[in-house]
Design a protein that fits this description.
The chain is 44% helix and 15% strand. It is of the alpha+beta class. A five-stranded mixed β-sheet has the order 1-3-2-4-5, sandwiched between helices. The protein has a five-stranded antiparallel β-sheet with strand order 16-17-18-24-21, with no helix packed on it. Strands 22-23-19-26 form a four-stranded antiparallel β-sheet. A hairpin with a 4-residue loop joins strand 16 (638-641) and strand 17 (646-653). The longest helix has 22 residues, at 594-615. The N and C termini lie far apart (72 Å). 49% of the residues are buried.
């Protein structure tokens, strides 16, 4: 039996084993339903690769076999990169890759590789950088032409079939007649990619004005009437919005908060938000946030869910609270694995067309709802007979919830939500878009972080439970005995070595769960994973961190240390945040001596990346947040002092409405837990011990730049013990264990858009029987 016959048997056996587990996306089917063509992708688990397993193209998966074949046959490599829920990837799949004539040309003159960008984001970044250098823009599907050593000599994105066929013929001819020119081009592009992805900028300090100047630059680029950055297409730009949120909280910057609120409000009302089912589509093709590409990515749900949660915490907005609830409930209903964790994405297409699943006509709505309710939905969601997308309607709101209540009555939101639930049940009868069932650790961990934050902030234990279940699943299934992570979990199997973002996001989820629940196992797991990161991803010469693992299949062109944001928050920025938290919890660590290592690693990396942030701040907004954390410390409602031995959780209670004749009174509760054998000196100790007490007593004050609030009263409990602290001549009253401080505040005439955000300074000095730590000030933004 020849090698080709043996391979054919192997592939057909795999096809038989996977019968019913995937759709045969090809028009080339035999009378018995079997596929006429088959290739090596049938051996893969990736839903994206399986979409191409029956193309007439002799696809290889990414790996050493394909490049060995290219060297042996002296052929150029055609590398096509995409992902399973990409609309234009599907278009090129149908037009070109299922085209027999194009398949014949590819098979005769090229070695063809199909790669799932979600499996190998580090490799995708290399070739995307090359495409952007060559064409000035990027996107998927990405079409690259490589030498057998993996270096690209030409690349672009989508090609219509006629242009693609012409291009294949041109490259085939150039390979035979102008090979030296292709090699020269590949060398130049490879060097340029290396310069971009491995910056060697000299060490420098961060520009002290960079935070405010970046806010100003973003505000100048804002579409003030429609929200977000001006122009189309419009992406959520979550890293930028998180930076503006941080600036609003840390500097009480009303312009940054207004930018954030306009963007969140517009997206929540727009077609980019699935008004019927909840959750967000990836981006809108227009400037109005109206017409999306209809795929839904898990990373958008996690990042936007976090933004709306934090904005709700600051402003108390019921609209934001509703968006959080609908987004996270959508994730739990439609993207959660039974065993814990989350699917990666759902498609834009169903029934062979984009968006079909999400569209409505007036008649479809009237078939589901009674006349009065149907008229309401048609009115408020701008449904027309002509439609706003290919004859049908993308539901969207023109005004906010408060305006709807003024127009239609206080109960209108409840009426709308009941109607939307009925439409959702009707929509469930439609053919659903394809769902990519693979769990990506980085994305699933980020979703767990958001669920944990939202669960704690909004009091939803089921979200916290889902976060813990997801993290536990990843620790059990994706973490090998040697401490290494696998990136992908699918059909009960793990694959692909973890990227830096997988480690960083999982560590972040573990640390958030630890801060909320105080369970030591989460902290221990975070510390163990961080040690793997240091061993496997840290470049001790530059102080930077590599994004991809050292052991990766295929050619080793560049190992990127690029720390800029992409569609998701920079993995390096997340890692720097994790290092800060681990150092802050040093006395809680299994080996507290590692805290110094964490500080050194963080300082080295911040010094190494400062020049890049200074030169291109708007692409590095997450790194700017990491710098601010390093400069000013945490400002969240849950914080630690005394190297982790004192835990403080702040919560606030503000009235929903304000009486015209009365000032607003608010209350803040500070719940403080002292670790075993650690204490805080009660505020009445100074009067009792006088100058004989060398230890500062606990104190509370406001730290706002503009006094929107004044403290009316601070209620401290009675000291529950006394202790002769080191340096004191006699015992002083102290707090141990858990106790609450109640702060009563009155709103002043300086109230503004950020008045729902209260900033307190908590001064304390922790002591044990043998030592007193230095005084600390926690800045709590509630």
């Amino acid at each position: 039996m020849s090698n080709e016959q043996s391979l054919e048997q192997q592939l057909r056996a795999a096809e038989a084993r996977k019968a019913g587990q995937y759709d045969k996306r090809t028009e080339h089917l035999a009378d018995d339903g079997s596929a006429v063509f088959i290739n090596r992708l049938i051996l893969e688990d990736s839903p994206y690769l399986l979409q191409h397993a029956h193309n007439p193209v002799n696809w290889y998966p990414w790996g050493t076999e394909a490049f060995a074949a290219a060297r042996a046959d002296n052929k150029p490599v055609f590398l096509s990169i995409g992902y399973s829920t990409c609309h234009w990837c599907h278009v090129m799949e149908v037009e070109s890759f299922d085209n027999v004539q194009i398949g014949q040309v590819l098979n005769e003159h090229f070695i063809s590789i199909k790669m799932d960008r979600e499996q190998y984001p580090d490799i995708d970044e290399i070739y995307m950088t090359g495409v952007q250098l060559m064409t000035g823009h990027g996107g998927w599907p990405m079409s690259n032409f490589l030498l057998p050593d993996g270096r690209p000599f030409f690349g672009a994105t989508y090609f219509p079939p006629d242009q693609f066929m012409q291009l294949l013929q041109q490259i085939s001819t150039a390979w035979k007649e102008k090979y030296s020119e292709l090699e020269t081009s590949a060398a130049s592009i490879h060097q340029a990619i290396g310069r971009i992805l491995n910056s060697d900028s000299p060490s420098q300090s961060l520009d002290s004005n960079i935070f405010q100047s970046s806010v100003q630059a973003l505000c100048e680029r804002e579409d003030r009437s429609l929200g977000g950055l001006a122009g189309a297409p419009k992406f959520p730009q979550e890293p930028i919005l998180l930076f503006m949120l941080e600036q609003a909280l840390s500097e009480r910057d009303e312009s940054a908060f207004a930018f954030l609120e306009r963007a969140l409000g517009a997206m929540g009302r727009g077609g980019i938000c699935d008004q019927v089912g909840g959750g967000f589509h990836r981006y809108s093709v227009d400037e109005h946030w109206l017409v999306p590409h209809f795929e839904k990515m898990l990373y958008n749900q996690s990042q936007l869910g976090l933004l709306y949660t934090e904005a709700c915490r600051v402003s108390g907005s019921e609209s934001h609270r509703r968006t959080v609830r609908r987004t996270l409930d959508y994730v739990l209903a439609e993207m959660q694995l039974d065993c814990g964790g989350f699917y990666s994405a759902t498609d834009a297409d169903s029934e062979g067309a984009e968006g079909t699943f999400f569209l409505w006509t007036p008649e479809q709505i009237r078939q589901v709802l009674d006349e009065e309710t149907a008229n309401l939905i048609i009115d408020v969601f701008n449904v027309s007979r002509t439609g706003n997308f290919e004859g049908s309607n993308i539901l969207h709101l023109s005004v906010d919830l408060a305006s709807l209540q003024q127009q239609h009555g206080a109960d209108v939101i409840e009426r709308i939500d009941r109607a939307l639930q009925a439409l959702y049940q009707e929509r469930e009868k439609r053919v659903h878009p394809l769902r990519d069932d693979k769990l990506i650790v980085a994305w699933s961990a980020a979703m767990a972080t958001t669920l944990a934050h939202a669960g704690q902030s909004l009091g939803e234990t089921r979200w916290l439970d889902a976060a813990e279940k997801a993290v536990q699943q990843m620790l059990e299934q994706c973490l090998a005995d040697n401490g290494n992570l696998y990136r992908i979990y699918l059909n009960g199997e793990v694959s692909v070595p973890g990227q830096l973002e997988d480690y960083a996001n999982l560590i972040q989820a573990l640390l958030v769960l630890y801060r909320i629940g105080n369970e030591a196992a989460y902290l221990q797991s975070a510390q163990q994973l961080m040690q793997t990161v240091i061993n496997e991803f840290h470049d001790s010469e530059t102080g930077l961190f590599y994004l991809g693992p050292a052991q990766q299949s295929g050619p080793k062109l560049v190992r990127s240390t690029n720390a800029s944001d992409g569609a998701t928050v920079s993995a390096v920025a997340t890692l720097l945040e994790n290092l800060w938290w681990l150092e802050s919890l040093s006395l809680r660590l299994s080996d507290s001596s590692e805290a110094r290592q964490y500080r050194n690693l963080r300082e080295q990396c911040l010094t190494a990346i400062a020049a890049e942030v200074n030169s291109n701040p708007l692409s590095n907004t997450s790194l700017m947040r990491a710098f601010k954390l390093d400069l000013q410390g945490s400002r969240g409602p849950i914080q630690f002092a005394a190297q982790g031995m004192i835990r403080v959780e702040a919560s606030k209670q503000l009235p929903a409405t304000k009486e015209d004749s009365e000032s607003t009174t608010g209350k803040v509760r500070l719940r403080i837990h002292c670790g075993d054998n650690w204490h805080l000196v009660a505020p009445d100790s100074a009067s009792e011990a006088g100058d004989r007490n060398p230890v500062a007593a606990i104190a509370v004050s406001l730290m706002e730049h503009k006094q929107a609030w004044q403290i009316e009263a601070v209620s401290f409990p009675q000291a529950n013990d006394s202790l002769k602290v080191p340096g004191a001549t006699e015992a002083v009253p102290i707090y141990s264990g858990q106790f609450d401080i109640e702060v009563t505040l009155v709103e002043t005439a300086n109230a503004d858009a950020l008045s729902g955000c209260i900033s307190l300074a908590l001064e304390l000095q922790a002591c044990s029987e043998s030592e007193c730590l230095l005084p600390e000030t926690l800045r709590l933004v509630i």
